[in-house]
Each structure stands twice: as C-alpha cells, then as structure tokens.
Here is the input.
Amino acid sequence: MRELFVGSTSVSTIGLSAASQDDISTVSGEITALLDQRHGISATASADFSITTQAQLLGTVSSVSDVLTLLLAGIASISLLVGGIGIMNIMLVSVRERTREIGIRKAIGARGRDILSQFLVEALALSLAGGLIGICLGFSSHSASAYTPAGALSSIRSRSFAAVGFSLIVGIVFGVWPASQAARLDPVVALRYE
Here is the structure.
C-alpha cells in the first residue's frame, strides 16, 4: 500500500466518505478501532491520530462565526454609541449658540413642542447624513475590492435600509435630551443669555 504514496514515507491525511449521513458515526468508530489495532494503541494510551468528521468541522466553523458575529456586534454598538454622543454634543452646542433665538421664538408664541420638534429634526438630519455617508463609503470600498453577484444586491439593499434606520434611531435617542433642554428654556432667561 505504501507504494501508492509517491515521495513520502508517511501519511498525514486520508479522506473517506460514507454512503449516507447516518453511517458517519459507524464508519468513524470502525476506522478508529482499525487504526487503534494497527498502531498498537491500548484502551489507556492516547491515539497518535485524529478523526474529524464534516459535522465537527461545521461545528467549529459555526462557533467561530458566532464569536465573530458577537465581536462585530460589539464594535458596531461602540460605533453607534460614539456617533450618538457626537450627535448629542453637536446638538447641545447648537442649543447653546441659539439660546437667544429660542427665547425670541418662545416670546412670540412658539410652543415647547415646536422647539422640540425643530431640534429633533436637526438631530435626525445629522444622523441621516452620517448614515448615508457611511453607506456610500461602504459601497465604494466594496465595489473597489470585490465582485458582487446579482442575487446579493437585494440583501445589500435591505441591509442598507436597516443601517439608515439604525442611524435615525440613534439620532432620535441621542437628540431627545438636547431638544428637551431647548424646549424647556424660559424665554426671559433665554433672551438675557449672552
């Protein structure tokens, strides 16, 4: 049998296939017993070979994929948090710079919800712009590096809509506090603000 292996005195890998998926464990057990006998391995000694089935390989790939998914989700959530804090800071600066304007609007009859909706719309515009810029950068980097099959375009399109939706949610969540700060300003205090 050794004469079949040209250029090598040892065998590192042998690939086998079973007739059906149900036979895999039976065939694996028979091969283990045969190799134990041929290598002189007793029940207490450790084997000098390993047998790996496709199910084990798929399990390993699946577990690695799950870890990578969790890692990417963690990175994405940190990115969303940082982006949200950036939006909140920009909106807080905008409220501070426009305090007199808010006071004038409230003095001539603007209600708190009008001011709130104005600043929420601004926060949504900021987050939408950031989301669209991110999608454009993603498309440009993807198109420069890889070929996209026709069937994958619908998946990419739906994920792009989901990304824009997440950016809008981040804009609302992190824009509510600055907008409510602006809506609660007292007109007299806001008009005196320097």
Remarks:
- The chain has a mean pLDDT of 82.
- The chain has six helices and no strands.
- Helices lie at 24-39, 54-97, 99-107, 112-145, 152-183, 187-192.
- Residues 54-97 form the longest helix (44 residues).
